[in-house]
Structures are given as C-alpha cells and as structure tokens.
Design goal:
The longest helix has 21 residues, at 170-190. It is built from nine helices and eight strands. The protein has helices at 4-21, 40-48, 59-68, 87-93, 103-112, 142-150, 170-190, 205-210, 220-223, and strands at 30-34, 53-56, 75-78, 96-100, 120-126, 155-162, 196-198, 215-218. With 227 residues, it is an alpha/beta fold. An eight-stranded parallel sheet has the order 7-6-5-4-3-2-1-8. Helix 4 packs across helix 5 (103-112). It binds pyridoxal-5'-phosphate. The site of pyridoxal-5'-phosphate has 13 residues, from strand 8 and helix 9.
C-alpha cells in the first residue's frame, strides 16, 4: 500500500538519483512538501516521516493549518498568488514567500513582518514561459525588482521561483529551467548572497535538478492526487 511515508521515501530517492546524474553533491536539493488541499493529519504523517518544510497556496487554508499544527517545529512557505489584503497574515505566519512579483506586495510584507521574527525569506516569481495567464515578473524586469526587494529591511531576498508551462517532454522542460538558471546566475553577479532557485514539481523535478534547482516543491507525488 502506498502511504505518505512510502511516497516521501520514493521522492527522496528520485532527488538523490537526480543529484548523482547531475554531478551535484548529495543533499544539495531541499524538498518542500506542498500540502495544499490536504489536512493537518497528512502534514503530521509527513512530519513523522522526517519532513519539516511545507508549502501552501491559499492564505486562509494555510493559516488554519499552521494554527492546527503549532505544536510541531515546522517551516511554512507560501507559494501561491498574493492578494494585497492578505499580506499581513503571510508576514506573520510564514518563514518564506516564494511568489513575490510586485514591489508593492514586497513593501507590505516588509512593513508587516513582526520585528520579533527574522526577516522573511523571499523569492521572486518569474514568468519564464511567457504565458499570458501565468503569474510572475517578466525576466527582463527581474533585476529592478530584485534591487527594490533587497533594500527592504523586513525581507531577505533568497532567489527566484518559477512554475514553467506543464509539458511532459523532458527536453522542453529543460529549456525553461535552463533559462531560469541563466537568469539566476546573472542575478548572483549583483547579489552573491542569493542561494535559492525554487523550481521543479512532481512531474519535472529531475529536469529542474539537472538545471540547478536548489529547492523543489512537490505535492501530489507525496500526498497523492488532489481532489
Ligand atoms: C501545487 C503546486 C506545486 C506542487 O505541484 P505537484 O505537481 O502536486 O507536485 C508546486 N508549486 C506550486 C506553486 C504549486 O501551486
């Protein structure tokens, strides 16, 4: 029978194999377990199997889950679209936000970050496939947004995030991830402290790791299909 623990073990094996194939050190790719639509019990099972970092997409659902799991030492990452009236909850309850695409949102997150907490780690979401429907800043706007975000005291700019167009062909997956790698390396020339390239999900994590992902966001391969 497939359990959360056994699926998590399979994902860890996929990551380890992809690290070897890419000639990257073991343990160089962090795993974010995307628990959106699954309840606190599923998160508890994943935590019992050794997983500590979890990703959420919807502000309200995430806050309820964080409150229900306050007894566990978990790290919460927000990875969904951000409405400006939801920034306070994100600034107060999360360790990371991966989906910053506008300076106005970044300013609000910085102002609303409680001073008792460390700076909020953020990634800039990039619309790398250039899809009209996708969120994210255009690649040519990344340097200006990075400069603005890096100057905000409540935030710590960590890197870039992308959700490329879903395709099954691995060569096609690699093209978008390779563009992200180039963009990230270019940005590191100005901001050498950047350490995070957040890309790769259940269906394309191998291609992402081959192109330098340092953090992959995996939901269905761990928790099962979303209803
Ligand atoms: C849902 C989601 C994921 C995980 O997707 P799976 O295909 O279930 O692994 C990763 N990143 C973001 C931004 C998501 O919304």
């Amino acid at each position: 029978m497939e359990t959360i623990a056994s699926r998590l073990a399979q994902v860890r094996r996929r990551i380890a194999d992809a690290e070897v194939r890419a000639g990257r050190p073991a343990g160089s790719v962090a795993l974010l377990a995307v628990s959106k639509t699954f309840g606190p019990d599923a998160v508890r099972l994943a935590h019992a199997a050794g997983q500590n970092a979890f990703g959420e997409n919807y502000a309200q659902e995430g806050e309820a889950k964080i409150a229900a799991l306050a007894d566990l030492p978990l790290s919460w990452h927000f990875i969904g679209p951000i409405q400006s009236n939801k920034t306070r909850g994100l600034a107060e309850h999360y360790a990371w936000v991966h989906s910053v695409e506008r300076e106005k949102i970044a300013r609000r997150l910085s102002e609303q970050r409680p001073v008792r907490l460390p700076a909020l780690s953020v990634c800039l979401q990039v619309n790398i496939s250039g899809e009209a429907s996708k969120s994210g800043v255009a690649p040519d706007q990344v340097p200006a947004l990075a400069a603005a975000v890096a100057a905000l005291p409540g935030l710590r700019l960590r890197g870039l995030m992308a959700i490329p167009e879903a395709v099954t062909d691995e060569a096609e997956q690699s093209r978008a991830f390779a563009s992200m790698r180039r963009l990230f390396e270019g940005l590191q020339a100005d901001f050498p402290e950047l350490d995070t390239l957040s890309m790769g999900m259940s269906g394309d994590l191998e291609a992402a790791i081959a192109e330098g992902a340092t953090l992959i966001r995996v939901g269905s391969a761990i928790f099962g299909a979303r209803g």
